[in-house]
């Protein structure tokens, strides 16, 4: 993977940050995108660059806006050169019963978790096709494979992302490009920590009880997945060794989807 140019969206924390770190450690130059404090994230990028010897730069593009998503890819290509690897990982969640679900939250969850991947893929494909090599990985979820209550937008977006993965895989395969999805179970990152805190407040349960009874209940391993474990799967899918894996939705879920 030495000298491959990669864009990782939603890489300012959690799974995306672990992925950006790992790709940089394997020799990729990385544009790390996400929200957060600019100075802090630029220090983080400088730290990863110093640790790995790879170029690591930050883009604060807001992927709820299609023009910023297209801008991210254009800016990344201008900074690093043509993009070889795209990891669509940015995600947001909103939890509410469907009959009370705010319409603007539906639009936001669909925009960030699904439409941003479409806009980014559309923007990188022409140069990947020209160079006859490319790797696209979409971070879906177990909720891209099964349903769950009170998360209608997220479940719909992640199922849509798995569908988009298959559609892209078929069109891109003749050009040496693969497109896959990873489907994590519960991973201890800010997106889950916020939900645990919310549910603890609503139910009156302690946070570790919420974790065990709600978030780990369907995972036979009984413990959260680590962000680094998901990053390892993503990095494999970005490697030459994974050339024949395409259109797949691969669970990294402690057995969540086995039953
Ligand atoms: P996280 O909250 O640590 O990371 C989310 C990332 O997305 C952050 O970098 C955030 O800045 C970025 N982001 C949010 N809105 C954005 C926007 N408008 N524009 C650009 N970036 C934006 O959570 P995470 O768990 O690392 O989530 C990463 C992906 O993994 C998400 O797609 C999430 O749905 C998925 N996922 C997470 C879990 C889990 O249990 N944590 C399980 C399955 C799937």
Automatic annotation (TrEMBL):
Pfam families: adh_short_C2
InterPro entries from the UniProt entry: 3-OHbutyrate_DH, NAD(P)-bd_dom_sf, Sc_DH/Rdtase_CS, SDR, SDR_fam
Enzyme class: oxidoreductase
EC number(s) reported in the record: 1.1.1.30
UniProt KW Oxidoreductase keyword: yes
Keywords: Oxidoreductase
GO molecular function, one term: 3-hydroxybutyrate dehydrogenase activity
Keyword check for Oxidoreductase: yes
Transmembrane portions of the chain: none
Organism superkingdom: Bacteria
Family: Belongs to the short-chain dehydrogenases/reductases (SDR) family.
Cited PANTHER family: 3-OXOACYL-(ACYL-CARRIER-PROTEIN) REDUCTASE, 3-OXOACYL-[ACYL-CARRIER-PROTEIN] REDUCTASE FABG
Protein name (Swiss-Prot/TrEMBL): 3-hydroxybutyrate dehydrogenase
Provenance organism: Azospirillum oleiclasticum
